[in-house]
């Protein structure tokens, strides 16, 4: 031990003794160090995807890479499609690459005419396929039900056979295994695996519910990405704003979860496809409207495969499609546009632009007809109910503007409206004009005069009609509507019904016909029977386990008399007017209104039900 200490100690003394600036020859430092070698990126991201995946560090793996991709996939999902919207995109996503009139069915691989889709609104006689939720809809959230990344066109009988069974391994074509699990077929293993991986990444849906991660990693490696998957990914990207990263590169699953080595579609060492597709040819435009035009062209060719076409309007990218025909929208009436189309392949190579076509959209200068037969069928001390005949227009009526004593009061899309906030025993003059979607206005209707009623003896007001007085949209199934009768007489409820609009889509549905009678000064409460709030159950006159009292905050609710809308809570257009709120009609409002007016309602905190059942 002493020796091993002593020698280094002498060395230190020697160095100290040789520290003179003049007497010691400097030690040769050797060659200059080499500059650090710049590492090759882990993946060679195609140019067409570089912007989408900007900010992702692909040198990461496991949980870090998973979290980054999940955050991106959620953030890019900017257009949340309702399940009913699937028809707008599913046929295009599943379109047969060799026959644009057909779709390819999952599990069977059959090509079928797109109008054979099974739907209550489809009049085509031979309806043979429907929508398959690859991750069963009974196991996912409402938000995930409409996500196109796990929706596929499927044969009706095969879809029924699959049911909600988890996936299992097998060989050959699709099959039900042991009566409780399903093998999708050799050609669909990878498709299924990558859709389930997306659902886990986007919604944290568990693998254990549907077959197991190890199985899907195996399928992802064994069955490479198909041209149809690439097509679907592009269509859904255009529809929703987000992509399935495991279709873009199956190897990402290997980086995250391990398992069998999947194909790397971004392999930096692989021979790169640098050949661009041919330019689309024979571009034509037809059926030019006010805001739309139909485009058709002949398909491009490529050494691998064309994955999409980009529509360019006045030099700017307008939209993408996988078809050789599309209807472009969002144009401005009376405007000239120059349009070209380019083709893009799987490697992101972009073709030369097609020859230009020039179009001029139609211009609308024609005003609607004047609203006819304006009448004031009902008045109270503070309100007047108006009605009139619908105007006509060469394009479309947007709204009617209501004027009181020559001054603008409000607008409505309906042909009835209740003017509120009037003074008792006062004569008013009412007129209405129609306005189309391009702001062409009709002349004012003929004026109609009406005098409001006197106030009641107790200083309050009476109503000529029953109306909604409270709305509850709380946690879980805490949902109810209250209807008040201030007419001064008992009302026969058999004339009335309640309906809702799904996501404010403009179509009234789920009608519930009221029964019995409602005494003067009393209220009627219609509630969801699934509520766990005893106060709602105590106040309810009728409970339903579903529609129309399964509304969400973007589902307008309407009160109808003999089929005619007389009162409405909410607005059209998928607007969250009542999400997690209790709305209570202000006591100054004693008449229905076919146009939802926020000023008529008090907004109370979620699950406030202390006033339900009493006006």
Write the layout of secondary structure elements.
Elements lengths: L1 H16 L29 H4 L11 H15 L13 H4 L1 E2 L2 E6 L6 E3 L15 E5 L8 H4 L5 E5 H7 L12 E3 L3 E3 L5 H15 L9 H10 L4 H14 L4 H4 L2 H7 L23 E6 L6 E6 L7 E8 L2 E6 L3 E4 L7 E10 L11 E4 L11 E8 L4 E6 L7 E8 L2 E6 L3 E4 L7 E10 L11 E4 L15 E7 L5 E6 L6 E2 L3 E6 L6 E6 L3 E2 L4 E6 L5 H6 L2 E3 L12 E5 L2 E6 L11 E5 L15 E4 L11
Parallel strand pairs: 28-29
Antiparallel strand pairs: 1-2, 2-3, 4-5, 6-7, 8-9, 9-12, 10-11, 10-13, 13-14, 15-16, 16-19, 17-18, 17-20, 20-21, 22-23, 22-32, 23-28, 24-27, 25-26, 25-30, 30-31, 32-33
Helix pairs in contact: 7-8, 8-11
Explained architecture:
By secondary structure, this protein is α+β, with helices and mostly antiparallel strands. It folds into 4 domains: about 45-255, no CATH class; about 280-360, Immunoglobulins (Immunoglobulin-like), CATH 2.60.40.10; about 370-450, Immunoglobulins (Immunoglobulin-like, Sandwich); about 465-605, Lamin Tail domain (Immunoglobulin-like). It has 12 helices and 33 strands. The protein has a 6-stranded mixed β-sheet. A hairpin with a 2-residue loop joins strand 30 and strand 31 (about 565-570). Helix 7 (about 190-205) crosses helix 8 and helix 8 (about 215-220) runs antiparallel to helix 11 (about 250-255). The termini are far apart. The relative contact order is 0.07. Mean pLDDT is about 85; it is low at about 1-25 and about 35-40. Belongs to the EndA/NucM nuclease family. Keywords: Hydrolase, Nuclease. Pfam families: Endonuclease_1, fn3, LTD. This is Endonuclease I. One of its GO terms (molecular function) is hydrolase activity.
């Amino acid at each position: 031990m002493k020796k091993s200490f002593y020698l280094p100690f002498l060395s230190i003394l020697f160095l100290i003794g040789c520290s003179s600036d003049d007497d010691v020859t400097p030690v040769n430092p050797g060659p200059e160090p080499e500059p650090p070698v710049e590492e090759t990126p882990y993946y060679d991201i195609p140019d067409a995807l570089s912007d989408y995946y900007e900010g992702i560090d692909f040198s990461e793996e496991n949980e870090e890479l998973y979290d980054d991709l999940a955050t991106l996939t959620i953030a890019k999902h900017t257009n949340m499609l309702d399940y009913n919207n699937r028809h707008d995109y599913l046929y295009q996503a599943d379109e047969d690459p060799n026959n644009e009139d057909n779709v390819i069915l999952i599990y069977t691989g059959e090509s079928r005419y797109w109008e054979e889709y099974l739907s209550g609104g489809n009049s085509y006689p031979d309806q043979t396929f429907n929508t398959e939720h690859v991750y069963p809809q009974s196991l996912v959230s409402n938000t995930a039900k409409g996500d196109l990344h796990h929706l596929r066109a499927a044969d009706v009988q095969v879809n029924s056979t699959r049911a909600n069974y988890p996936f299992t391994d097998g060989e050959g074509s699709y099959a039900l295994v042991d009566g409780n699990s399903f093998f999708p077929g050799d050609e669909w293993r990878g498709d299924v695996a990558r859709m389930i991986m997306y659902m886990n990444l986007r919604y944290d849906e568990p693998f254990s519910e549907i077959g197991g991660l190890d199985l899907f990693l195996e399928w992802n490696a064994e069955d490479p990405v198909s041209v149809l998957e690439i097509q679907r990914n592009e269509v859904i990207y255009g529809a929703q704003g987000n992509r399935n990263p495991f279709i873009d590169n199956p190897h990402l699953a290997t980086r995250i979860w391990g398992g069998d080595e999947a194909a790397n579609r971004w392999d930096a060492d692989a021979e790169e496809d640098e050949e661009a597709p041919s330019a689309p040819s024979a571009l034509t435009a037809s059926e030019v409207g006010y805001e739309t035009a139909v485009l058709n062209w002949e398909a491009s060719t490529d050494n691998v495969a064309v994955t999409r076409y980009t529509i360019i309007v006045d030099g700017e990218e307008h939209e993408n499609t996988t078809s050789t025909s599309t209807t472009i929208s969002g144009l401005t009436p009376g405007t000239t546009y120059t349009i070209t189309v380019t083709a893009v392949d799987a490697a992101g190579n972009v073709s030369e632009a097609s020859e230009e076509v020039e179009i001029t959209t139609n211009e609308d200068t024609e005003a609607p007809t004047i609203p006819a037969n304006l009448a004031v069928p009902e008045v109270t001390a503070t309100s007047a109910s108006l009605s009139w005949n619908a105007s006509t227009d060469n394009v479309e009526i947007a709204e009617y503007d209501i004027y009181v004593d020559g001054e603008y009061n409000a607008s409505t899309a309906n042909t009835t409206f209740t003017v509120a906030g009037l003074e008792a025993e006062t004569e008013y003059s009412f007129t209405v004009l129609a306005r189309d979607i391009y702001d062409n206005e009709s002349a004012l209707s003929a004026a109609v005069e009406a005098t409001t009623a006197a106030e009641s003896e107790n200083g309050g007001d009476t109503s000529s009609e029953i109306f909604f007085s409270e709305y509850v949209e709380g946690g879980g199934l805490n949902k109810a509507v209250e209807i008040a009768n201030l007419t001064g007489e008992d009302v026969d409820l058999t004339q009335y019904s309640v309906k809702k609009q799904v996501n404010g889509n403009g179509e009234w549905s789920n009608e519930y016909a009221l029964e019995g009678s409602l005494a003067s000064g009393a209220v009627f409460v219609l509630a969801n029977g699934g509520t766990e709030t005893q106060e709602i159950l105590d106040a309810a006159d009728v409970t339903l386990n579903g529609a129309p009292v399964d509304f969400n905050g973007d589902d307008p609710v309407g009160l109808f008399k003999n089929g005619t809308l007389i009162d409405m809570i909410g607005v059209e257009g998928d607007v969250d007017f009542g999400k997690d709120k209790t709305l209570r009609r202000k006591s100054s409002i004693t008449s229905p209104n076919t146009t939802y007016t926020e000023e008529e309602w008090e907004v109370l905190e979620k699950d406030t039900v202390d006033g339900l059942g009493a006006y």
